[in-house]
Amino acid sequence: MATKPKPSARSRTKPTHAPSAPDRLTRASSAKAISPTLELKSQPAEKKASSRMPLLNRSNSPDKVPARSSQKTLSVPKASSYAVIDSENDREPIKAFLRIRPQTNDDAEEGSISSPYLEPISDTAVRMLDPSSSNGLHSRASTINPSSVYTFSHIFPPSTHQPEFFTKTTLPLVKDVLEGQSCLLFTYGVTNSGKTYTIQGGHEEGSAGILPRTLDVIFNSVEGLQGDGRYQPVRLQGVELAPESCPSSPISQYVKSSKRSLVDLLDESATADLSDIDHTTLKLDRNYEYSIWLSYTEVYNEKVYDLFSSVDDPSAADVRSTPTTTGIPRPTSTFLNLPLPTSQSKPLLLSRKALQVKPCPLADYDGTSDAGSQGKYIAGLRQLRVTSAAQAKALLRLGQMHRRVFGTLANSQSSRSHAIVTIKVLKLHRGERNNSAAIQTSRLTLVDLAGSERTKHTQTSGERLREAGNINKSLMVLGQCMETMRTNQRIIARSLEASVDSGSRLDTRDVKKGLAIVPFRHSKLTEILMDYFVGEGRVVMIVNVNPYDTGYDENSHVMKFSALTREVATTAPTAVSRIVPYRAKSGLGSVRNSDAASHRRKVTISTGGPGKKMSEAHLEVLEEDEEPGDEDDDEPINPLVNALFDEIEALRMQLFESEMRCAIIEADTREEVMQEMEERMHNMEKMYTRRLMKEIEQNEAKMDAKIDMIQRANSQTLLASSSVEEDLQDITEEDEIESTPEDEPNDYEHGSDSEFGPSRSPSPLASKGNAARRNR
Ligand SMILES: Nc1ncnc2c1ncn2[C@@H]1O[C@H](COP(=O)(O)OP(=O)(O)OP(=O)(O)O)[C@@H](O)[C@H]1O
C-alpha cells in the first residue's frame, strides 16, 4: 500500500502569498496555478482573514437562502438552481444560536411549569426570568440572578421548523466544508431540551434534523462530481492511497438469518423517516472531484468508542445492488447480526474497546504550522466512504443501534454519551488525480452533547453517578477551555494596547509566556475537538433550552456558558509550548490508566410501545479501556493542571454534598422551629384560656355581688316605700276627708288615663304633691 503523507488542510486556509514554503505549493495556491479561472470560487486566503474577525458584525439580516432550499418536498431538484448563502458578512468566530423548545404533551404529563421563563426581546436577545422569583419563592441560597438578558447570534422561537433552522445555522457550514474549510457544530443544553431533535430530527414528516439534511445537501451538490475513492483519509488531516481491494462502498449486504437478531429488534423501534429529504443544492467548482467519508464516535465515561467498529467486512457486496423490502439500504454489523438470547440467564456478551486519542504527526501538516501537535486524532477510528445520502443515513442509523446495544441510549430517551459524527470531504482537482499532495481535506463535525445531567433532580447513584460525573466533567472542561481562551485573548489585547501606547515593539514570546494553559487535555471531548478551537475553522454552538423545564438554574448556567463561548475567537494562541514535559505513568493527575482495564455491565433493550409488540433483549457489555499510550507518541501533560482539575472535581462533589446536607439541615431546622412554635402557641392558647376563665369567674362573682347589692337595696327600698306609703295613705285619708273630690278634678288620673291607662293606681306621692301645691 502506497502511503504518502500530504500537506495539511490548513494549507488551504493559509494566505497564498505565504512565503514560508516557496518550494511547495499549498493546495490552494496550486489549485490557483492550474486553474486561474477558479480564483473567485476558491479564495481560502480571504476566508481565513474574515474568519479571524472579532464579533464586529452580528448581522441578523433576513435569510438570503431561497425559500425552496429546505422546504419539505419530494420533487426532483433542479440542478440549475442553487442555494445562495451570504456568509461572508456574517463571520463571528463562534456563533451561538438559541433554540427554544416548544411545550410537548409529554411535558404536561411530567409536570413541567405552566408558563415559559424565557421571553425573546428581539431576534438576538432573550430575557430569562426565574419563575420562583415572581411568586416570592426564589431561594436565598441561589446564586442565579432572578432576571437576566442574554444575547445570541440569532434566537429561534419554538415555532421554528427544521428546514428554516437548518438553512440559517448549518447550510453555511456545509458550503464551507465543500469549499475546503473545516467546521464544528455542537448542541448544548440540559437533558430533554431538544439537542437530539435538532441534530437527528423527529419522527414526523418534514422534521429531519440538521444531520440528515447536511448529508442530503452534500450529496445533492456533489452529484456527478464524486471521485473514484482512490485515496482515503487517515488520522485528522492525512490522506493515503486506498488499498486495491477496497470497494466503492464499504457497507455490506444484510444477510438475513433464520433466527431473530439484534438488528431485527432494533429495526422495529426505528421510526426515522428516511424519505424526508432536503433538496437544497449548492453550486460547486466542477473542476474538482469530491469523495465523502463518514465516521461516528461516542465519548462515554471519558472513553472514546467507534460506533462503526463492528460494521461488516467492507469487501462484501455493495448494498445498493441488494435493495431491501423498504428500498432503503440496511447495513448491519457483526454485533447486530447476532441472534437474540432466548433467556435472561444467558445474556449475549458483546465487547468493545476504547480508542486512544493521539496527537497528529507533524507529517500530516504542511510544515508551516507552528504547532503541528495541536490537532488530535482518534487512533483506529474507521472512516467509511459513502456515495449517497441514503447510504450515509443508513450507516448512521447503524451507529445509533450500536449506541443502544451498548447501553448509552438503552431504554431511555436520554443520551448519556457525546455522539460525534464527522463528515470528511476529500477534494481533488481533476487535473491532479495522481497527486495526493493536492488533495484538500476538510471536515464538518456535528456533536450531540450529552445532556448536562441534573444529579440534584434525578436520584442518580452508582453507575449513573459516574456517568453524570463524566458528562459534567467534559462539559465543565469545555467551559474551562473557553474561559481560558478568552482570558488569553484579553491578555494579548492588553499587551498589544500597551505596546501601541508606549510605541515599543511587542515581543510575542513574552506575551505567550503570560498565557494560561488551555486545558484541552482534561477531557476526551475537548481533546478531540481542540483543533477547531485553536485552528481556523468555524464553530457553531446551538443552545437548546426547554423554557418549561423545572431546572431553571441549570438552564441559566447553559445560557451563561453560551455567553462565554461567543466571546472566544477560535484562532487564539495557546500556551501548549509551556506545558512541562510529563509522563502519565507517575499517577499524579494521570489521565490514562497504565494498564488497560475492562468494565462489565448489563444492558436490557426493550422496544415496543403503545400499540406495538413488546420485545426485550438482555445483553452483557464488556468495555475495555484503551491500550496504555505509546509514551513517545504522547503529548506532555502538566501534572499541576491535572491535579487542579481533580481538585475542582472533588470540590464540585463536595459542594454538591454540602448543598444536600444544608438542604437536609434546613428542612430539619424548619421542622424543629415549627414544632417549637406550635408548642408555644399551644401553651399560649392554654394560658389565655385559663385567664379568660378566671376573668369570666371574677366577672360572674362581681355580677352576683352587684345583683345581691341591688336586691338588698331593692328590698330596703321596698320596705321604706311601704312605710312611706302607709304614711301617705294616712295623709291621703285625712286629705280626702278635708277636700271634695267631685269639684276638683284629679290631674294625675287624667294623665294616667290618657298616657298610661287606667290600670295604674294613683301615686300617693302625686296626691301628696297635689296637697302641697294646694297648700301653696
Ligand atoms: N423543536 C421541537 N419541536 C418539537 N418537539 C421537540 C422539539 N425539540 C425537542 N422536541 C421533543 O422533545 C423531546 C426531548 O428532545 P430531545 O430528545 O431532542 O432532547 P435532548 O436534549 O436530546 O435530551 P437528552 O440530552 O436527554 O438526550 C423529544 O420528544 C423531542 O421530540
What is the CATH-assigned architecture of the largest domain? 3-Layer(aba) Sandwich
Number of helices: 19
Unreliable stretches: 1-80, 136-144, 246-256, 313-326, 367-373, 455-459, 572-594, 743-766
| Annotated CATH homologous superfamily of the largest domain | Kinesin motor domain
What's the CATH topology label of the largest domain? Kinesin
Give the overall silhouette.
Answer: elongated
Query: What is the number of E strands?
Result: 19
**Average pLDDT rating:** 71
The profile of the biggest β sheet is: 9 strands, mixed
What percentage of the residues does DSSP assign to strands (E)?
Answer: 15-25%
CATH class of the largest domain: Alpha Beta
Distance between the termini: 159 Å
Amount of helix:
25-40%
Structural class: alpha/beta
Plain-language structure description:
With 776 residues, the protein is an alpha/beta fold. The protein folds into three domains: 52-69 and 92-202 and 210-220 and 294-452 and 464-585 and 597-637, Kinesin motor domain (Kinesin); 652-724; 739-776, no CATH class. Helix content is 37%, strand content 16%. It has 19 helices and 19 strands. The chain has helices spanning 10-13, 27-34, 44-51, 105-110, 131-134, 162-169, 171-179, 195-199, 210-221, 262-269, 334-337, 389-405, 462-502, 508-513, 524-534, 552-566, 639-738, 747-756, 764-775, and strands at 94-100, 118-120, 125-129, 147-151, 154-156, 183-188, 231-234, 238-241, 288-300, 303-306, 348-353, 357-359, 376-378, 384-386, 418-429, 440-448, 538-545, 598-609, 612-624. Strands 1, 5, 6, 9, 10, 14, 15, 16 and 17 form a nine-stranded mixed β-sheet that branches. A hairpin with a 4-residue loop joins strand 2 (118-120) and strand 3 (125-129). Helix 9 runs antiparallel to helix 12 and helix 17 packs across helix 19 (764-775). Mean pLDDT is 71; it is low at 1-80, 136-144, 246-256, 313-326, 367-373, 455-459, 572-594 and 743-766. Adenosine-5'-triphosphate (ATP) binds next to helix 8.
